[in-house]
Write a structure and sequence with these properties.
about 150 residues, alpha+beta, two-stranded antiparallel ribbon
């Protein structure tokens, strides 16, 4: 978890994550704790916003994610693993890219989007964002609609 303690009410001496609490006008010293799952969700949401990202996570995670989506319990942190220190955060993101996008451009976009979100929303310095492209989604491969199948019987 990211723990942040504010011992001074001056923004210049407060740490990055607590700075927003001090600057919002409260002027009260205290401790802010941001759970790792929150950091994972922020990174996951940012990664999904990148054009060319079909989904996040490996095969098993996507299968479980499909079940969770069906019952309305989407896991926004799926496919994201974070390591949170006192001042820095590192993230590992596993993606499925859409075909025929440039995989390097998608990975760079994910890296940039996740880093920006973690810095702005969580308020921590990003040490690194590792992106693993685990699969490529080809439109038409998963289209098993009953309407498109020709009936074998009359």
């Amino acid at each position: 978890m990211a723990d942040t303690t504010t011992t001074s009410t001056t923004p210049a001496t407060a740490s990055a994550a607590s700075r927003s609490a001090v600057q919002n006008g409260s002027g009260t010293a205290g401790k802010t704790t941001i759970d790792d799952t929150v950091v994972s969700k922020v990174a996951g949401i940012a990664a999904r916003e990148v054009n060319g990202v079909h989904s996040l996570g490996g095969g098993a995670a996507r299968a479980i994610g499909a079940i969770r989506d069906a019952i309305g319990q989407r896991d926004h942190g799926q496919g994201v693993k974070v390591e949170v220190g006192e001042k820095q955060v590192a993230a590992d993101v596993v993606i499925v890219a859409e075909y025929p996008v440039s995989l390097q451009q998608v990975a760079d976009g994910v890296r940039s989007s996740v880093a920006r979100a973690l810095e702005q929303i969580v308020g921590m310095e990003v040490a690194e964002v590792n992106v693993t492209v685990q699969d490529v989604f080809i439109p038409g491969d998963d289209d098993d609609s009953d309407e498109k199948k020709e009936s074998r019987v009359e």
